[in-house]
């Protein structure tokens, strides 16, 4: 009954052409996280949950469901199957194109409804603090003469940091051995324990060990420095980490963090969530989250977001083809 | 000494009436989520997490970690009563806990399980209190080769050379390994054995398989023998608690061994599940009442419970000191810490002293509160066995189905539960052992990953498994345990002959 | 020796037959695993390929199942796996359970639970009608309250329950 009413209301809104957010959620909203609890996507979802509930942005409760199986593939299948359900959201990272390309999974983000891009995440080249490397150049020189090859490690096979490791090999003409662990956390500990030579973790994944003096950042895989100038470890801030291209390592890579809905939802439903996320990114909780994780604020929605996705996907396809990560 | 002062300060923080109230609420909620298969510590924590955003971080973590204690305690209840492990780490508790219940000793088994949990948790907290920094450094020495060593040791301590039909043990172990391998392979990033089916992509979840193999199949077996629960005429009163306690000191060796195993597995993130199996395996190997294991031996309840809880508690240490979660619940707690603006890691102990020591003090108090609450519920739970089978059985089956569904939110998993229920029924009747299957399922892919990570790092060189003292010790210990049976037989025979010899000379 | 010599209550499915069927099924499973693993590569290229371990375990299963098969075929004892009477009892639980799981796919968990409770209590137990009715209605309601309202865990629902606003 209520649903029929809203469908009619939505239809009326379409006919009259007004863009007023006529739709509102009628039951709890599920945010599906394609990663395990505690990971960076999970933290983002829980921050969003906190921001919504503290500021009373939505009347319905927010539920977070972790579906980490198959590198997020299962979560994407779920969204694929839920076409038309306006009470589901999925957090997204580059995995939204990488997992289907690497596993031949029959899903495509074009079948989903893009809501908003919230931020971009940087990657940093980290080494164990006891090792003599001070700059990216030191590391590359050492890698050139190392036998067996130096070990890097990270999130998992054919994932973002594996791609970065291979990209570095190609750009610098070196050979590295990438060891896939089950996430950035273990990779950080393995680096602190000296079991690997370097990792390419996100700032948030490595900050604890950086502050404790067990790992050291060499450079950030971006064209410009990060913007956060608060002191983190000793007298270093995120902004003090030099960009890799400045150190002769011409590798840049960032990962999007965004939100999608299932396909076949109405324009009003999509608009409701776009507005919601516009409000969320203005909350103090969200700003604190960005700073804590040294994320690059980059809000996009609508055609702007879609254009970004298309370009980013093409770039990933290119990088993954060169790295031999595409399933055949 | 400084630490002790800090701890006393911590007790002052934790002992405000408000925090004690949070503790009790947390433990009760934890028991509820621990009892229901499919709901677990992570659910309980996740549901309260949003409520804690406005709270003082110390009160918040006391509330949330109490859920964790409650869930640890609660997992044993359904294992003992219905052979359905409420949590993955209480699978090994079913091996002897359920037979005890069948014999009408449900209250005794529950008391043993709860008390063992408490002892294990206490061991874990003592570890955290006194040697946290040292242990955190030790955990850093674990690379892939060492992890493989730990998993290998777990297998060897559990499987060994049993007396059952060897072909069936091997078959069961193989099935477990193969089930574990289905889905995405971490090392290569490819899908394995999914045969193009998207449902198989996520692999076989441990809990779904176990609910089917143990829980559903048990109901099918029960009904074969008539429409009632076995052992429903159990003596139920609180005196059982005292009687059981009086017997515990005799098992000090098992309790101590399991505590050590558990602490070890919790710190090196082998996890509570592996710890419970290893604790059970070792107890069986070294007990004088070895023959009685699996038939309702109280030692078989004490050993896995102590180990699981020592591990579950110690697992909070790497979370606090290194920022890596030792379990799924710890992972959600970790997320909470970050949202409250606390950065777990080596500096947390320095920068947020009152928080860390408040938490540690709450671990002591939370466990005491937990033990008292669960012991008080023993008669309540044990009396469930008196309700008519035809009323309880469908409820159990519905709860099993919900449990299987909620693990991954997949309807396909309910079908899997049914299939494994049937498989478990057939396997139990023709004596394919289920325990090796479950062990291989839970540790198989992690052991394989660790092995392949180590080999990747060494460039294909197998000597990496003997490259330093730590990993060599693990591997040698494992092989020794694997052949423990034959070795002791041999020694026994040699000694026996010597004893015989003089008589022959006479 | 012959089964007919046994008293009629003891008649049932032969254990030997079940052992043989299980062993054959496991060998089939092993074959499937081997086919899949060798298809993806089960060698050692500077380290094990992703089919290396499953293939070895597959062979192990094949061999173990073959042993089980041989010992089952050679077994002298004629044991009964399950008597027909027992099988009938098991079916009284298994068939409703099967219908329940099937029902979850179409009716959601709440309506299926209601029907399953009622069916089970009526066929297996001997309750008064009002007990059956009360239990069948209460159980889904309690489950709904615990999971959907208290723990916010969404369970499978039929379109009917979904329209109630959850």
Task: Please sum up the structure shown.
The complex is a heterotrimer of chains A (328), B (506) and C (166). Chain A folds into 2 domains: 27-120 and 255-323, D-Maltodextrin-Binding Protein, domain 2 (3-Layer(aba) Sandwich); 124-252, Periplasmic binding protein-like II (D-Maltodextrin-Binding Protein, domain 2).
Written overview of the protein:
The complex is a heterotrimer of chains A (328), B (506) and C (166). Chain A is an alpha/beta fold and 328 residues long. Chain A folds into 2 domains: 163 residues, 3-Layer(aba) Sandwich (D-Maltodextrin-Binding Protein, domain 2); 129 residues, D-Maltodextrin-Binding Protein, domain 2. Chain A has a 6-stranded mixed β-sheet, with helices on both faces. In chain A, strands 7-6-8-5-9 form a 5-stranded mixed β-sheet, sandwiched between helices. A two-stranded antiparallel ribbon of chain A has the order 10-11. Chain B is mainly α. Chain B is 74% helix and 1% strand. Chain B contains 22 helices and 2 strands. In chain B, a hairpin with a 6-residue loop joins strand 1 and strand 2. In chain B, helix 6 packs antiparallel against helix 17. Helices cover 69% and strands 4% of the residues of chain C. The N terminus of chain C is likely disordered. In chain C, helix 1 runs antiparallel to helix 2 and helix 3 crosses helix 4. The longest helix of chain C is centred in the middle third of the chain and has 40 residues. A two-stranded antiparallel ribbon of chain C has the order 1-2. Chain B: Pfam families: TctA. Chain B: This is Tripartite tricarboxylate transporter permease. Chain B: Keywords: Membrane, Transmembrane, Transmembrane helix. Chain B: It comes from Enterovirga aerilata. Chain C: This is Tripartite tricarboxylate transporter TctB family protein.
Tell me the radius of gyration of chain B: 23 Å
Topology order of chain B in helix (H) and strand (E) letters:
HHHHHHHHEEHHHHHHHHHHHHHH
Task: Give the end-to-end Cα distance of chain A, rounded to a whole number of Å.
Answer: 49 Å
Q: What's the architecture of the largest domain in chain A in CATH terms?
A: 3-Layer(aba) Sandwich
CATH superfamily of the largest domain in chain A: Bordetella uptake gene, domain 1
Which parts of chain A are unreliable, with pLDDT below 50 for 5 consecutive residues or more?
1-21
Kindly provide the radius of gyration of chain A, computed on alpha-carbon positions and rounded to a whole number of angstroms.
21 Å
Sheet having the most strands of chain A: 6 strands, mixed
- Structural class of chain B, please? mainly alpha
Integer tally of domains of chain B = 1
List the quaternary state of the chains.
heterotrimer
- Element order of chain A: H for helix, E for strand: HEHEHEHEEHEHEHEHEEEEHHEH
Class derived from helix and strand content of chain A: alpha/beta
| Amount of beta strand of chain B | under 5%
